[in-house]
Amino acid sequence: MSEQLIIFDTTLRDGEQSPGASMTKDEKLRIARQLERLKVDVIEAGFAASSNGDFEAVRAIAAAVRESTICSLARANDRDIARAAEALKGAARSRIHTFIATSELHMEKKLRRTREQVLEQAIQAVRFARNLCGDIEFSPEDGYRSDPEFLARVVEAVIAEGATTINIPDTVGYAIPELYGNFIKNLRERVPNSDKAIWSVHCHNDLGMAVANSLAGVQIGGARQVECTINGLGERAGNCSLEEVVMAVKTRRDYFGLDVNIDATQIVSASRLVSQTTGFVVQPNKAVVGANAFAHASGIHQDGVLKARDTYEIMRAEDVGWAANKIVLGKLSGRNAFKQRLQELGIALESEAEVNNAFVRFKDLADRKN
Ligand code: KIV
Ligand code: ZN
């Protein structure tokens, strides 16, 4: 039996941290229901302690969604963790996700704490959380830029306290796929109790490599959870995009050998809902969910796709929720695509000569329009 890759969606938490993407409780609830239809394993519904609005949103999602695990983020302190636990009370399955920064830069300049203080705070936080919830995720923020030896000490200690998922964020999108994959692999080897937790990747897209880095974390590093957002929404250049990472694993199952629970036919609806809700337009050439992702404009490609779609398509548009692929007629189109469109429109031309004639006139018009 093949292994499962857990899909953890953080559109409603990290995605919402995108400037201008803040959502109301009702909007979040609508998106959470769509994420449930998408069969996301874990929904990070918000950061309950950050505001009363977010607390209420997490609470409402926990009460409404039954199929996915509902998670709230919490800083590594008792107040945040208690607030998260309170908001998650009504959930069928809940998770508390607690974090603290472990890179020298963040500890010294932001937290103004020593290594030993941070280690102790992480231990106390996980111990406190574990008494409130059986499913605890721990993230060392800026993990990828942390000293591996210190990071290993922190991770070993929080697993010993009962953390069930260890997430290693590339908080600032600094990683390179091979290096990030090996970072996770080496860290797992360094931590004696690493087999007691599921390892997770969380990559930001500052250098456009969030999906590639996440996949390397899975393939080289052995992570079995990916954190991602719909349309790659997120702070600065965004997070790892759910639709891209999921379709990479599904389409290249021959390489990854992993199963995902996701119902891919819900992807386009999820993408549209998030885009409409936040006002963040999806670029036309965006993989999987862009308007042109399955559109063919060149005559050679159109002819190929009409004869056998796999000549130019590696996924079926219908499988990710589009009505069908799109043959876009324009000045680059070929006669075959033109003839097919006439048939679809119910226009019956008597002879091949008539088709040829109409095609010449169409090309002339398209040349002038383009
Ligand atoms: O990017 C990050 O480090 C985070 C953590 C809170 C997991 O979002
Ligand atoms: Zn993040």
> Structural class of the helices, strands and pairings?
alpha/beta
Report the biggest beta sheet as strand number plus sense, adding barrel if it closes: 8 strands, parallel, barrel
Task: List low-confidence stretches.
Answer: none
Oligomer: single chain
Keywords:
370 residues; alpha/beta; 8-stranded parallel barrel; two-stranded parallel sheet; 14 helices; 12 strands; 43% helix; binds 3-methyl-2-oxobutanoic acid; binds zinc ion
Q: Any chance you could write out the topology, listing elements then pairs?
A:
Elements: E1 3-4, E2 6-9, H1 25-37, E3 42-46, H2 52-64, E4 69-75, H3 78-87, E5 94-101, H4 104-111, H5 115-130, E6 136-141, H6 148-160, E7 165-170, H7 177-190, E8 198-203, H8 210-219, E9 225-228, H9 242-251, H10 253-256, E10 258-259, H11 267-278, E11 295-296, H12 299-307, E12 326-327, H13 335-344, H14 352-369
Parallel strand pairs: 1-10, 2-3, 2-9, 3-4, 4-5, 5-6, 6-7, 7-8, 8-9, 11-12
Helix pairs in contact: 1-2, 1-11, 2-3, 5-6, 6-7, 7-8
